[in-house]
Each structure stands twice: as C-alpha cells, then as structure tokens.
Write a structure and sequence with these properties.
Blueprint lengths: L2 H8 L2 H8 L8 H15 L2 E6 L7 H18 L5 E5 L10 H17 L4 E3 L7 H14 L4 E5 L5 H7 L6 E5 L14 H17 L3 E5 L3 H13 L8 E5 L5 H9 L4 E7 L3 H14 L2 H14 L4
The structure holds flavin-adenine dinucleotide (FAD).
C-alpha cells in the first residue's frame, strides 16, 4: 500500500463523512432520486444512480442489495433522466459467474419494465472476464444493457474486438484500480492517449461510447474524433462523477447539445460510502483541498 493510501485509510470516519458530502447523494433511495431529478430540472444533466457497496460475500447482504435496487427502480419509474449502475461483487460474484448473471438479470428485467437502462460497472482486473461474460449473456436478451472498459488494461483492445457487432453502450474510462505493470499502463498520459484511440475504435465498430473522464482536453479531443467520423451528438455522451467540480464545463457541453451524465452514488450503509470516498480521495488527494476550501467559503459566507 502506498503512503498516500495508508494516510487516507487512517482518516477518522467523521472527517471522511465530511469529504463524502459532495460525492454521495445521501443514505436512501429518495435522496438519490431527488438529486438526479434536481440535476435534470436545474441543469438538464442526466444521472446514473449507483448503490454503494462491493465485495459482498454473504447471501443475505446480496439479497438486501437486490431488494434496494428493485425498490429504486420501482420508485424511479419510467423517466428519461436516470439510468442505474451496479457491480458484480455486490450481486453474487462470490457464487460464480452463472449465479451472478442470474441475480443481475433479475434486476435488468425489472428495470426493462420501466424502460430504465442498466450499466455493469467494471471492477479490478480479477473481475474483467466475469464482468464481460455476464455482459455478453445479458446483452443478447436485453439490448440496452451496457458495461465499462478501462483504457489502462493491455487487454482492452482485444476486449473491444470481442464485443464486435454488439452495438453496445460502453463507458470508457482510464480505470480507478491500480493494476500491476505486467497487465496495465502505469502512466496517466499514456492511459488517456489509449482511451482516445479506443474511443475511435468504439465509434468505428458501431458502439455508443460513454466518455467518462474529468479531463477537459480528453473530452474535447473525443468530440473532435466524433466530428471527424461524422458521428452525431446522439451517438455518444460524456460522463463525470458527482462532486467533481466541473459545472461550468458541463453547462457549456449541454448548451452545445451534448448529453452529460453524472454518476450519482448513494449508500444505505455508511461503511460503503466511506470506502467509496477513500478510494476517490486516494485517486485524487487534491479533492481534499477543494472540499476544505468550499467548507471555509460557506462558513465565511463567501461564494
Ligand atoms: C461516470 C464515471 C464512471 C466510472 N466508472 C468506473 C468503473 O466502472 N470502473 C473503474 O475502474 N473506474 C470508473 N471510473 C473512474 C475512472 O476510471 C477514473 O478513475 C476517474 O474518472 C479519474 O480519471 P480522469 O479520467 O478523470 O483523469 P484524472 O487525470 O484522474 O482527472 C482529471 C482531473 O479531474 C479531476 N478529478 C478526477 N477525479 C477526481 C476526483 N475523484 N475528485 C476530484 N477531482 C477529480 C482532477 O482535477 C484531475 O486533475 C468512472 C468515472 C466516471 C466519471
């Protein structure tokens, strides 16, 4: 474990809760839906709502997670501003691919009844095969099902080839997990260069790329690629995490006719929100300074 991660892991819970605020929509379904609805009504920003929690190894916890997702879907109902994101390790991966696929498909079926799209997030490399196998199996029957690829992994080019002909919604990101150097790039500029090359291939192969990054230069370059390939604006979208300060840029994209979607996580159990925030802080320690400045600004009445 690196020093940065070690220090962040030592941070006391109240402090992490403070940092969690901009990143996490709340501790119940209603808070997540309110957040997503407000993003849409106030700024025409779409959302993908995610229940925090991963690496669940008890059937009871998995069952609870399924119930929360199904309630979320029923309360959300048919609308056009929010999709759902979920992870294999919160939905039965500990019992093998077939079991996990069946659990996830149950949620996808429920979502389909309300016309809600579902995306299968990508976790660390030990789950890539399982995630893509589940994705392919469900996508055959439920065409709007989407997944994620991580540009840092050497295997991603082959994974894109293996999805040929599926016309899929593919969120493409650099990947949040630190991966070993024998299987992944270690340098961010290289990951981003790869990401742009992969976006081009995704377009050419007929997929719908969801460009997930906060790097404005990468987004602008992705738009250039789309324009060079004569891709209309409804053939892709830009995604960012709720809480990362990119409001002006997002508003500009929306004014120019692009679809922007924010990842809106909520937690029914604080331990999951804390784990999520620690991972985000470890990936981006500068966020701590930003949040502290914001708190100080609010407490001194300056804006
Ligand atoms: C919608 C969405 C879904 C994602 N889903 C997955 C997934 O399923 N699997 C996966 O492995 N990864 C996922 N990620 C994470 C992604 O892989 C990157 O780790 C993350 O987006 C940071 O990379 P970046 O491209 O923004 O580049 P960076 O170079 O890390 O960030 C660019 C700039 O954005 C700002 N920034 C970025 N992240 C943060 C942050 N957390 N807090 C504050 N500022 C920040 C900083 O100013 C930074 O300089 C997702 C990201 C998004 C936006």
């Amino acid at each position: 474990m690196g020093l940065k991660k070690f220090i962040i892991n030592l941070a006391p819970t109240p402090m992490v809760k403070l940092f969690a605020k901009p990143y996490v929509a709340g501790d119940c379904i209603e808070a997540a839906i309110d957040t997503a609805r407000n993003f849409c009504e106030d700024r025409h920003v779409c959302s993908t709502i995610d229940l925090l929690g991963e690496e669940l190894e008890s059937d009871e916890e998995v069952q609870d997670t399924v119930s929360v997702y199904k309630r979320l879907i029923d309360v959300l109902g048919p609308q056009d501003y929010a999709t759902i994101s979920l992870k294999p390790t919160q939905l039965g991966s500990h019992r093998g691919t077939e079991h996990c696929k069946n659990v996830i498909e149950g949620i996808v079926k429920r979502a389909e009844q309300h016309n809600i799209k579902v995306t299968l997030d990508m976790e660390d490399h030990s789950f890539t095969d399982m995630t893509l196998d589940i994705f392919r199996a469900i996508k055959k029957v439920h065409p709007t099902f989407g997944t994620v690829l991580q540009s840092r992994l050497f295997r991603t080019e082959n994974d894109i080839k293996s999805l040929k002909g599926l016309d899929a919604r593919i969120r493409i990101c650099i990947g949040i997990y630190n991966e070993p150097k024998d299987i992944a790039l270690q340098n961010k500029p290289e990951m981003k260069k790869k990401m742009l090359q992969q976006i081009e291939v995704l377009f050419k192969e007929g997929h719908y790329p969801e460009i997930a990054t906060h790097d404005e230069a990468v987004i602008n370059e992705a738009i250039n690629i789309a324009e060079r390939l004569n891709m209309k604006k409804d053939k892709y979208e830009v995604q960012m995490l709720m809480g990362v300060p990119r409001k002006a840029f997002q508003d500009e994209l929306i004014q120019n006719g692009f679809l922007v979607r924010l990842y809106v996580p909520f937690a029914e159990k604080w331990k999951f929100a804390i784990a999520y925030c620690k991972r985000r802080l470890a990936a981006n320690p500068a966020m701590a300074t930003y949040i502290l400045k914001n708190i100080l600004r609010k407490s001194t009445g300056k804006c």
